[in-house]
Amino acid sequence: MSFMRINNLKVHFPVRGGFYNTIIDTVYAVDGVSMELERGKAYGLVGESGCGKSTLGKAIIGLEKITSGSIYYKGKNITNKRRDRKSIYNRDIQMIFQDSHSSLNPRKRIQDIIAEPIRNFLNLTPKEENRKISELLEIVGMPEDARFKYPHEFSGGQKQRIGIARSIATNPKLIIADEPVSALDLSVQAQVLNFMKDIQDEFHLSYLFISHDLGVVKHMCDHISIMYKGRFVETGTKYDIYNNPQHIYTKRLLSAIPKVTPIGREKRKRERIKVEQYYQKEYKKYFDEHGRVLDLVPISRTHFVATTSR
Ligand SMILES: Nc1ncnc2c1ncn2[C@@H]1O[C@H](COP(=O)(O)OP(=O)(O)OP(=O)(O)O)[C@@H](O)[C@H]1O
Ligand SMILES: [Mg+2]
């Protein structure tokens, strides 16, 4: 049973310009996206820079105004509802922001940053609150004395871990994790990802995991959606996407994953060229005359592809 349902969601931004600062164009950042999320599952959102991943995440937690479409949480329509700061929705849905630097208030100490959701949603005594903050810092591998410092005293990776500590403080149901590890060293990346998996099992959490890294998503997610120009080109289980990709854009993304080993490098290069030629040749089966991604059609119970050729 899904606890969240997103129907044909659109977020369009007007572009203003000219002498009178009038609306001269529109950015179709998210342009008709539907998803169903179940408890305890991890959903991956992959696509190139600017395709609308962060906008979709922000629209879900209510930071971006929804142009049309709807979001249902536990059966309730919460689209563009003015959400009370202390509402259950705000407690249950948390986000780890892509830009951890600007998402942490520079004038607050770390302990107050982490305590903010705790104070909003949990009724703890000051002593319990203190213990909870220590516990969260330990979970994300930060020293106890970090709590007295300010965000600018930390590196990008450390700030990202502080963001994670804050996001899990209130035992949320869904964490939208926007590139949570892309600013981290490889060794720390694995550590944070494994940690996120552990808390997922422990708290039966769901993730909407945003990344441009298909390897990270493969490691973390059960279900994957590939996004291009504000729309899903393909969505399916991890198996569907990696073992049976159908959309030319998905194939192109997969063929572009760099491999560490030099063995077979030439062969992979030839394959990439083949995929590219195929992309040009088959383009019309996957995009309309304006270059817009077609609607998704099912090819199995779990696997959907935006194409005409079925
Ligand atoms: N507030 C805004 N006003 C106007 N355009 C915006 C706004 N926010 C985002 N956009 C545009 O919407 C599109 C999608 O942006 P978004 O940040 O969602 O991309 P993204 O997939 O998260 O990219 P990245 O991987 O680089 O983080 C981009 O073209 C961006 O320029
Ligand atoms: Mg983004």
Automatic annotation (TrEMBL):
It comes from the Bacteria. This is ABC transporter ATP-binding protein. Residues 4-254 form the ABC transporter domain. Keywords: ATP-binding, Nucleotide-binding, Transport. Pfam families: ABC_tran, oligo_HPY. Belongs to the ABC transporter superfamily. It comes from Lysinibacillus telephonicus. One of its GO terms (molecular function) is ATP binding. One of its GO terms (biological process) is transmembrane transport.
